[in-house]
Automatic annotation (TrEMBL), chain A:
Catalysis performed (reactions): a quinone + NADH + 5 H(+)(in) = a quinol + NAD(+) + 4 H(+)(out)
EC number: 7.1.1.-
Entry keyword set: Cell membrane, Membrane, NAD, Quinone, Translocase, Transmembrane, Transmembrane helix, Ubiquinone
Name listed for the protein in its UniProt record: NADH-quinone oxidoreductase subunit H
Membrane topology summary: Multi-pass membrane protein
Superkingdom in the source lineage: Bacteria
Family, per entry: Belongs to the complex I subunit 1 family.
Any single Pfam family the record assigns to this protein: NADHdh
Species the sequence originates in: Actinomadura parmotrematis
Assembly and oligomerization: NDH-1 is composed of 14 different subunits. Subunits NuoA, H, J, K, L, M, N constitute the membrane sector of the complex.
InterPro entries: NADH_UbQ_OxRdtase_su1/FPO
Phylogenetic classification of the source organism: Bacteria, Bacillati, Actinomycetota, Actinomycetes, Streptosporangiales
TrEMBL record, chain B:
Transmembrane segments: 6-24, 31-49, 55-81, 93-114, 139-161
Main location: membrane
EC number of the protein: 7.1.1.-
Subcellular location: Cell membrane
Broad EC category: translocase
Record lineage: Bacteria, Bacillati, Actinomycetota, Actinomycetes, Streptosporangiales
Protein family according to the UniProt entry: Belongs to the complex I subunit 6 family.
Protein's name in the database: NADH-quinone oxidoreductase subunit J
Length: 321, 180
């Protein structure tokens, strides 16, 4: 029965990672934003450096009343936060954190699994936007859908470039094949993947769907309490998944300067959190893009760039073979 | 009957049931969401048959892109919450006849073609490697013909949506205002 034990332990590790890491990213966002923008609010709770801010937020969310608008489609409204959150948990199953099978589920087409399941998460936001029976929520839901449709294509192209370079669709296989010279070779693909992923997560500067100054909070306008907290958690879990996938596909995953085998998980975590820091940094330093700028960036820049990266990857593979 | 057969049957039942709900529900957006369930069950069936690559591409393209496009279209035009009275089409009996006829033809062809022939399902039979090898070696000509068909559809879509190039629509004043 040792096999069964290993599987159970791996699943527990993934569940623990899913419970802890997004909260760490949330805490980091509080602190980094507070420092970068001189915000004093999150620096008081629990005395030292406001360490208890996240705990206080959690308590606040749990205390709030669970309200469902009278005109809403109750079933879909209640289902939406789950549909938004669960796919990110599933993606974590296939992300390798270290060499020699340190992954919960080593799928052959793991890359396509990750991309497909991430796409399902967006349906949660669309469901929330429609079922709230609120015109701002509906507008937000439509913007989510429009954004997904334009950014899914460059994201899949950029990810395919990494798969082509490695000659496999398995995420562990891609890290196995990775060499340092992938960094310049796949640089464009990495940038396109990361930017398109930010847009798919609706993180600033791509937060048109939740633009608070125009449409309140987009699809999440009518949500409160724990259901709203689930959407926030889905956002942080999304950051975790995006950074983990970028790390695995383009930054060499568990490869580091020394002790790859023993410290692989540490290198993965370091890279993931460095990328998460960039995600937060971008949020505090870039203004929101307008809808037409969003669409132009996707179709006029990211799609051609990702196609050029695919052509380059293919040419180098053929010439090197 | 093995466990695999049972799971396949159950997934098939879910796919067909959700498909029936897509056309019988009186709520427009629920129809699109039932389609997600139906397509998801279909992807599950592919998984049981070890065609894992096809399964995940099915989720990526149909659930992640096609249904999102459908939802976007519904929300852009009208997406009432609650039942709509005017969803029933006068053609529904004709549609039912066509659906049953298609199903009968497909079942008959499959039964006549394969009968009770059995092929063992082996792990890795539908992997990306096996699929890629057969598409780009054995079936490369149909694949290329299909890609030309898709290219023609793409060009057609561009011609239809651009009113500033060619065609009578471009010279028509109103169509020109709507474009852009």
């Amino acid at each position: 029965m040792p096999d069964l034990l290993v599987i159970v332990l791996k699943l527990l590790a993934v569940a623990a990672g899913f419970a802890v890491l997004p909260l760490l990213i949330g805490q980091a966002e509080h602190k980094v934003m507070a420092h970068m923008q001189g915000r004093l609010g999150p620096m008081y709770a629990g005395a030292f450096h406001g360490w208890a801010q996240l705990v206080a937020d959690g308590v606040k969310f749990a205390q709030k009343e669970d309200v469902v608008p009278a005109a809403a489609d109750r079933r879909i409204f209640k289902l939406a936060p789950g549909v938004a959150l669960v796919p990110y948990l599933l993606v974590l199953l296939v992300v390798p954190v270290g060499p020699h099978g340190q992954v919960a589920l080593d799928l052959g087409p793991g890359l396509f699994f990750a991309l497909a399941v991430m796409g399902v998460g967006v349906i949660g936001a669309i469901m929330a936007g429609w079922s709230s029976a609120n015109k701002y929520a509906l507008l937000g839901g439509m913007r989510v859908a429009a954004q997904l449709m334009s950014y899914e294509l460059p994201m899949v192209f950029a990810a395919s470039s990494a798969a082509m370079a490695a000659g496999t669709l398995s995420l562990s296989g891609i890290v196995e094949e990775w060499h340092w010279w992938w960094l310049p070779w796949q640089a464009v693909g990495a940038a396109v993947f990361f930017v398109a992923g930010l847009a798919e997560l609706r993180r600033p500067p791509f937060d048109m769907p939740v633009a608070d100054s125009e449409i309140i909070f987009g699809p999440y306008t009518e949500y409160g309490g724990l259901r709203f907290a689930f959407f926030l958690l889905a956002e942080y879990a999304g950051i975790l998944v995006l950074c983990a996938l970028t790390t695995v596909l383009f930054l060499g995953g568990w490869r580091g300067p020394f002790l790859d085998t023993e410290l692989g998980w540490l290198w993965t975590l370091v890279k993931v959190f460095a990328l998460a820091f960039v995600v937060i940094w971008v949020r505090v330093s870039y203004p929101r893009m307008r809808e037409d700028q969003l669409q132009r960036l996707a179709w006029a820049w990211l799609v051609p760039l990702s196609l050029a990266q695919l052509a380059l990857t293919g040419a180098v593979r053929v010439l090197a073979a | 009957m093995t466990g695999q057969d049972l799971v396949l049957l159950l997934l098939g039942a879910v796919a067909v049931g959700a498909g029936v709900l897509v056309v019988t529900t009186r709520q427009l957006v629920h129809a699109a969401l039932w389609l997600v369930v139906s397509l998801g069950a279909l992807a599950g069936s592919y998984l049981v048959l070890t065609a894992e690559f096809v399964a995940w591409v099915q989720v990526l393209i149909y659930v992640g892109a096609v249904v999102v496009l459908l939802l976007f279209g519904i929300m852009l035009t009208r997406a009432p919450i609650g039942a709509s009275a005017d969803l029933d089409s006068g053609n529904r009996w004709a549609a039912l006849a066509v659906a049953l006829g298609t199903a009968a033809v497909l079942v008959t062809v499959t039964v006549m073609g394969f009968g009770s022939a059995r092929k063992p399902v082996e792990a890795g039979g539908g992997s990306a490697e096996a699929l890629g090898a057969s598409v780009f070696r054995t079936w490369v000509l149909p694949f290329e013909v299909l890609s030309v068909l898709l290219l023609a559809a793409l060009v057609g879509a561009i011609v239809l949506s651009r009113t500033d190039v060619g065609g009578r629509a471009g010279r028509d004043g109103r169509a020109g205002e709507e474009g852009g």
